[in-house]
Write a structure and sequence with these properties.
Largest sheet: 2 strands, antiparallel
Distance between the termini: 22 Å
Radius of gyration: 17 Å
Strand order of the largest sheet: 1-2
Order of helices and strands: HEEHHHHHHH
Number of helices: 8
Number of strands: 2
CATH architecture of the largest domain: Orthogonal Bundle
Strand content: under 5%
Length: about 160
């Protein structure tokens, strides 16, 4: 749900301006920009609503909501997206550190969130929690690197989206 929200917003003209996602017209192309913005907002808000209503243990619900807010908010995906938007404006090519900041915040922190939430729900101890969080970060970085390679090497038809974005 949160991933779909991020893709709906990412495809908007103000960000990546993509026309296709998974071989289908993007939300703003199938409907319009306002609908895409509201649909993305609704998906993110619904994720928080589900966590708040469906988790029986209040301390667990608060912890899960906190993990998601941190990963998807201004300390996570939002700052990564801003760095990604600003990267082409720089006069020098992106450095490895620039890419690590973008990928860690925009993608890897969401993978970390998934691992952290699983650890919380599974009753992991502190050591297990930290290991799973580190695992999530590394898997997320690996995923984003592979996705970037595909954007350069694969065709739009193979990707189901515009290549090179």
């Amino acid at each position: 749900m949160v991933h779909t929200y991020s893709l709906v917003h990412d495809d908007l003209p103000a960000i990546d301006n993509d026309d296709f996602r998974r071989g289908q017209p993007t939300c703003h192309k199938a409907f319009d920009e306002a609908t895409a913005i509201l649909a993305g907002d609704a998906l993110l808000t619904l994720a928080f609503e589900i966590l708040a209503k469906e988790i029986d243990e209040p301390a667990v619900a608060v912890s899960l909501i906190g993990q998601l807010a941190e990963a998807a908010g201004p300390a996570g995906m939002i700052v990564g997206q801003m760095a990604d938007l600003k990267a082409p404006l720089k006069k020098t090519p992106a450095t490895e550190q620039d890419l690590r900041i973008i990928h860690t915040n925009k993608t890897a922190k969401m993978f970390r969130c998934a691992a952290a939430c699983g650890a919380i729900c599974g009753g992991a101890d502190e050591g297990q929690f930290e290991c799973l969080c580190e695992y999530g970060l590394k898997i997320g970085l690996g995923f984003q690197i592979a996705d970037d390679i595909l954007d350069v090497c694969a065709s739009s038809e193979q990707l189901g989206k515009t290549a090179g974005k």
